[in-house]
């Protein structure tokens, strides 16, 4: 399950960001997962629940993952459409597959928590 290593990296990013913002613990983490990023969001959530227990900085935080569609562009008729999975057929002319733009990112969007200096 590569979601575990992805989540380990995400937690490292969260912790570095918490240090930069002088947060002693993190309460909320917001992540964005592209629909075409090849990750299973449920597996990410599960990995987070397992991994956070080992780390006091994130142990009491909750994770929100927003899924983001890519954009499909039809090479035949130019139609654009949000794409949630590969092999999408053009809704206008039926061409398969549409070319995809974006939707392949996985990143930490924001965090919040308690500051060290109160
Ligand atoms: Zn088309």
Can you tell me about this structure?
By secondary structure, this protein is of the alpha+beta class. It has a domain at 2-68 and 102-115: hypothetical protein PF0899 fold. It is built from 2 helices and 6 strands; from the N terminus they run αβαβββββ. It has helices at 2-20, 41-52; strands at 23-34, 62-68, 70-73, 80-83, 99-101, 106-115. The protein has a 3-stranded mixed beta sheet, covered by helices on one side. A 3-stranded antiparallel beta sheet has the order 4-3-5, with no helix packed on it. β3 and β4 form a beta hairpin. α1 (2-20) crosses α2 (41-52). The longest helix is centred in the N-terminal third of the chain and has 19 residues, at 2-20. The chain is elongated. The model has no long low-confidence stretch (mean pLDDT 93). Bound molecules: zinc ion.
Features:
about 120 residues, alpha+beta, hypothetical protein PF0899 fold, 3-stranded mixed beta sheet, binds zinc ion
């Amino acid at each position: 399950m590569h979601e575990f290593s992805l989540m380990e990296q995400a937690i490292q990013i969260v912790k570095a960001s918490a240090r930069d913002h002088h947060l002693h613990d993190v309460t909320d983490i917001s992540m964005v997962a592209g629909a075409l990023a090849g990750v299973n969001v449920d597996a990410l959530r599960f990995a987070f629940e397992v991994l956070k227990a080992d780390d006091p900085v994130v142990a009491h935080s909750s994770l929100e993952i927003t899924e983001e569609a890519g954009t499909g562009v039809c090479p035949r008729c130019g139609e654009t459409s949000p794409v949630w999975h590969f092999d999408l057929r053009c809704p206008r002319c039926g061409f398969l597959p549409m070319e995809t733009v974006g939707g392949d990112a996985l990143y930490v969007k924001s965090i919040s928590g308690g500051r060290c200096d109160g």
